[in-house]
Each structure stands twice: as structure tokens, then as C-alpha cells.
From TrEMBL:
Forms membrane-associated dynamic filaments that are essential for cell shape determination. Acts by regulating cell wall synthesis and cell elongation, and thus cell shape. A feedback loop between cell geometry and MreB localization may maintain elongated cell shape by targeting cell wall growth to regions of negative cell wall curvature. Coiled coil: none annotated. Transmembrane segments: none annotated. Keywords: ATP-binding, Cell shape, Cytoplasm, Nucleotide-binding. This is Cell shape-determining protein MreB. ATP binds at T12, A13, N14, G156, G157, T158, E204, E205, I206, K207, G284, G285, A286, L287. The lineage of its organism: Bacteria, Bacillati, Bacillota, Bacilli, Bacillales.
Length: 333
């Protein structure tokens, strides 16, 4: 049994794993539930996510990645090892080669941590690639031609904006403003306006079911339950699309600003290509209602949401694995 090459989208919110010849085989939340008394990991992934905000004192649900980088090394390693065992890719003797993605502006120390975690979890050789580049490939863009392509990858912890040409990044920016921050803004808005405490999962439900970031694009309502900060008792309120749009306005403005600054630094020839082809949105944040309309209006270029935006990075690692031997030669320093 020979080992397989695998690609990992190690995200702040989700981990996706692509196995050469099998496609995306795993898509689970980046959460580990740990017993604080014994230090043992009890659950990983989806089953651990269900415990968030619902655990007794001795069990904590940890998200080991923050803003696209490793915040807790040991827990990340535990999580990766669990996922790799789950998909059962280790050969009889050989370990898999792993291609893993990182945000564009992380430090060499952060890169080393990601590489080390993957090696310790059972990777033979580990290659790192920049996330927007991989997302663009996964979204079906041909970035290897001498023409400009622009991608905005909105994940859980970071948003990466990049202009690519000739198979590489020409200009890029990575900001710590993404899906998690949107949840936090919603949670905060409810707390301030209604004096009601809600959990992260409820905030995410609001984001998915009623939120929009484009004025007037959606008119829906949702009933949510939380704890009244004054009486301490459970209470139900109704939240509508319009007020959520107001709560998210400032955060989304940061994304627009990041895209504008990347466009401002882009050579004019490539800018002309982007006007023709438009900008592609990838990552879970691309599913935020109205975000494509808002980008199109603010940047004055066509904006398209990639097909299955959550899977673009994982699929991109798959396509890059086809050329892993070339990558391996290039990286042998």
C-alpha cells in the first residue's frame, strides 16, 4: 500500500482535507473538546462543535487556530492527527505528503508552526502554499496565464485579497476580519441593543438565515433566544435583516477597503484584465448575503461568487497535488 498525497485547508473555522484520487473527504469544524482535569481530548470536529457553550466546567471546547494561524500548538496537532486517522490515508509503511495552506502575511515562525504540526501529525513531507493562490485555482481560475485574476477569500479568521498572474501573487493583503468577526458583531449588537446574551452558534444562525450586507437586499426575520442581562431569565426576541445589515456595516467596510488597497497597488495592465474578468469571492464568507452586490457597487467591477466557495481552497490543494513533484523540486533548498 503506497501513501497518498493529501491537501489540507487548515482553517480557523473548518478543516477540509483533500485526498488525491478521492476528492474532498473531510470537512469538519476546527474545534477540540478537552477535559481540563486530565488534559485529554474528548471530541474533535463536529461533535466537539456541538459542545461549544454547552459543556460542564471541566470540559472546554477549544478552537486551536486564531486568525488563520496556530494559537495552540498541541491541540492543533491532536486535531490534525485525529482527522488524518479518521480518513485513513497512512500507507502500510509510508506517510502521506501534505500540501497545506497559509494566509499571505504570516511570519516565518507561524509558518514553521503549521509545518511542524502537520509533520508531527503524520506527514512525510509538508509543503506550504499561500491560501488566495490555492483558492483561485480551486475556483477554476487559470492563474498561470500572463493576465490578471483577482480573488477575495473570506474565511473564518482572515480575509485574503490577491491579484495573481503567471502562477504567482502580484499584490496581496490579508486582514484579520472575516466570518468570526461578523458573528461577534451580531452578538455584540444584540447584547447592546436588547440587553440579551446569546451564544456564538445563535449569532451564526442569524448571519446565515437573515443577515445581508447590501441595503434592502433581504427582508427576513428570525426569533432568537438568549439570557436577559437584567433579569437573568431566558427571553425571546425577533431580529430582522435590516438591523443586522447595520451591525455588519463597519466590518464589511474593512473588507472593501482591503480590496481597494490591493487594486490601487496593481499594475494598470492587470487592472484592465480584472475589469474584464471580474473578482471571484471564495471561502465561507462569500456566502454572506449581498456581499457580491456590495463589492460590485463599491469597486465598480463585476463580482462573482465561486461555485461551492467553502471548498475552493481544498479543491485547489487537490489540483496543486497533481504537480506536487514539481513543487517538491522547486522547494528543495
Amino acid at each position: 500500500m503506497f501513501s497518498r498525497d493529501i491537501g489540507i485547508d487548515l482553517g480557523t473555522a473548518n478543516v477540509l482535507i483533500y485526498v488525491k484520487g478521492r476528492g474532498v473527504v473531510l470537512d469538519e469544524p476546527s474545534v477540540v473538546a478537552i477535559d481540563t482535569q486530565s488534559g485529554r481530548a474528548l471530541e474533535v470536529g463536529e461533535s466537539a462543535r456541538r459542545m461549544v457553550g454547552r459543556t460542564p466546567g471541566n470540559i472546554v471546547a477549544i478552537r486551536p487556530l486564531k486568525d488563520g494561524v496556530i494559537a495552540d500548538f498541541e491541540v492543533t496537532e491532536t486535531m490534525l492527527r485525529y482527522f488524518l486517522n479518521k480518513i485513513n490515508v497512512k500507507g502500510f509503511l509510508a506517510k502521506p505528503r501534505i500540501l497545506i495552506c497559509t494566509p499571505t502575511n504570516i511570519t516565518s515562525v507561524e509558518k514553521k508552526a503549521i509545518k511542524e504540526a502537520a509533520e508531527k501529525s503524520g506527514g512525510k513531507q509538508v509543503f506550504l502554499e499561500e491560501e488566495p493562490k490555492v483558492a483561485a485555482i480551486g475556483a477554476g481560475m487559470d492563474i498561470f496565464q500572463p493576465s490578471g485574476n483577482m480573488v477575495v477569500d473570506i474565511g473564518g479568521g482572515t480575509t485574503d485579497v490577491a491579484v495573481l498572474s503567471m502562477g504567482d501573487i502580484v499584490t496581496a493583503s490579508s486582514i484579520k476580519m472575516a466570518g468570526d468577526k461578523f458573528d461577534y458583531e451580531i452578538l455584540n449588537h444584540i447584547k447592546k441593543k436588547y440587553k440579551l446574551l446569546i451564544g456564538e452558534r445563535t449569532a451564526e444562525e442569524i448571519k446565515v438565515n437573515v443577515a445581508t450586507v447590501f441595503p434592502g437586499a433581504r427582508k427576513e426575520e428570525i426569533d432568537i433566544r438568549g439570557r436577559d442581562m437584567v433579569s437573568g431569565l431566558p427571553r425571546t426576541i425577533t431580529v430582522g435583516s435590516e438591523e443586522v445589515q447595520g451591525a455588519l456595516e463597519e466590518s464589511v467596510a474593512h473588507l472593501i477597503q482591503a480590496a481597494k488597497s490591493v487594486l490601487e497597488k496593481t499594475p494598470p495592465e492587470l487592472s484592465a484584465d480584472i475589469i474584464d474578468k471580474g473578482i471571484i469571492l471564495t471561502g465561507g464568507g462569500a456566502l454572506l448575503h449581498g456581499i457580491d452586490q456590495l463589492f460590485a457597487e463599491e469597486l465598480k467591477v463585476p463580482v462573482l461568487v465561486a461555485e461551492e466557495p467553502m471548498q475552493c481552497v481544498a479543491k485547489g490543494t487537490g489540483l496543486m497535488l497533481e504537480h506536487i513533484d514539481k513543487i517538491a523540486k522547486r522547494k528543495l533548498i
